[in-house]
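Field: sequence (string)
Field: structure_tokens (string)

Example rows 1 and 2, in order.
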Amino acid sequence: MQAIVGGKIITMDGAYIPAGTVLIEQGKIAAVGDKIQIPSGAEVFDATGMVVMPGFIDSHTHLGIAEEIFRVEGDDVNEITDPVTPHLRALDAINPLDLGFQDALAAGITTVVTGPGSANVLGGEMVALKTRGTVVDDMVIKQPVGLKAALGENPKRNYGQNRKTPATRMASAALLRETLVRGVEYIKKQDRAIRNKETHVERDLKLEAVARVLRHEIPLRVHAHRADDIMTALRIAREFDIRLIIEHCTEGHLVADKLAQAGVPAVVGPVITNRAKVELQGRSLETAAALVNKGVAFAIMTDHPVVPIQYLAISAGLTVRGGLSEEQALSAITIGAARILGLDNRIGSITPGKDGDLVILSGHPFDLRTVVKRVYLNGQAFDF
């Protein structure tokens, strides 16, 4: 049993406790409050004057796939040989000893989503995992947590320059539709084989991944910066009745009402970046506020290594300058992010029964002077 006592507890579950206690038992949060009795024999950490929060969540990274220090040796982000590779699994490319995981944990980030890049129209399956371990399989929270897709500049640039499809936005959308149609037919074929009690059912790994989206088991997570690309993603999602998450959503403020009407969430960012390409010309700190004002659920990302993962909290803090409240910005890297990922039953708030993932800070996470003092991941303590 571990007890964190005396801290300013921001539970992200509706309560702020100026001086309270959190109990962790067998890797789970056992109790939280201001009148919690400390069990005999508990390991006590005095957090008086410190801020206690749920571990932070980065909802979109390439952590462990684009490794720190290494170049080509540790770069497994994009399979630029085929624009349609939904059967690729991020899980198979992650090096859990990537130094970026150390940076993440030291910054209070206990959960990340990592996945393929945006070179392909369909890039592969993304995975949610904890940020400490030596075997990636032991770090997984949910696999897959979405199927990565991409519209806009990246696929057309990577293939068009070699006179291959897709060379236009039209071709990217067409390839996505074509693959979804094949997925629909694959599901029909599989269902028919099961009904007919056929002994041999032919498998197709690409279409199995697509079928998970069509069956609403996972969302299609579409890289889309520009408003027109966001609308293409919404159009396709409506045509095929699939769950959608917009990744980056740089010009989401221009179509926030459309996202709200469709009930589609967004993972916004990276926030700390320049206009490195044309589709980032509409970059604004006000995007997140525009989304929340229309009722769009959202999270904040680093897109690590585009922005180093340790700057997640700073990224969220900058959105306050763009019009968000502090609570809304904190939610975007805690409970709000967990809800978008479908993991709010396990992470995102200091709630009894959830994973023992906590960060203890010297001050408010948006204060540049604040440092992380201790992190609990599944109840295991790490001091910094």
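Row 2 begins here:
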Amino acid sequence: MSAVMKSMERVGAGLQSTRKIFNAWPVALGVAGVAALLLFYRLYQGAYSFKYGLDSTTPEFQTYWVTMFKIEIPVIFGLGLFMVAYLWFTRDKNLAKIDPETELRRYFTLVGWFLIYTFAFLGIASFYGESDGTWHQTVIRDTALTPSHIVVFYACVPLYMVFGFSTLTYAMTRIPKFASGHSIPLLFVVFGPALILANLGYNEWGHAFWFTEEIFSHPLHWGFTVLGWTGLALGGVLLQVVMRMSELFKEITAADQSKVIA
């Protein structure tokens, strides 16, 4: 009887592994950092938009808004280049030989990247996107660098682009499934929303020479909507991820059971 109990304890110890496969702290810190930055921009807009942001020819506009634009662009894109370069130069060059547990751990990390990327995308998809239209329906623009544009297009968009391309780089350099081929949903998720920044040029040209009113339903804004919708391809990526994670869980469980029996 005691021998049977000991055997059951060994099986339980094998199945209830204490190995840590996901660390939530980097994700929590990433989300907190993005939230803090978005909150800062909101408070800054509330304090200085109507006070110094109505006339682009004033010295105060140059001090409070153009200076911010000149700082945020190199800082955010510089951070993105650093993150992508780091992920590339520290890439795993033996992906064909990684064990199932390591691969599963990396899938959990990839999901963490998706969480931060999605949260960063909320900056343009919710409050700041709507407030931009409201600003231009209320205040006549005299420059493309309006207080709303400096935040929504030149801060929020580059910010989620940083996490989007970092997510893509992580997947292609750490996970065999994404390194051996191209995931169409993942490419849609990253490149579609990133093209919103390129579409801004067409939008500004249209408002300057074609259509001055800020009407959401006008064809001039359709590009933003369609490119934003490409983010819905994240559901397809998560389906690919979950299917592979399910296979890895089975492989790890089977390996643990075989070790216990042995």
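free_text_note (row 2): The longest helix spans residues 59-89.
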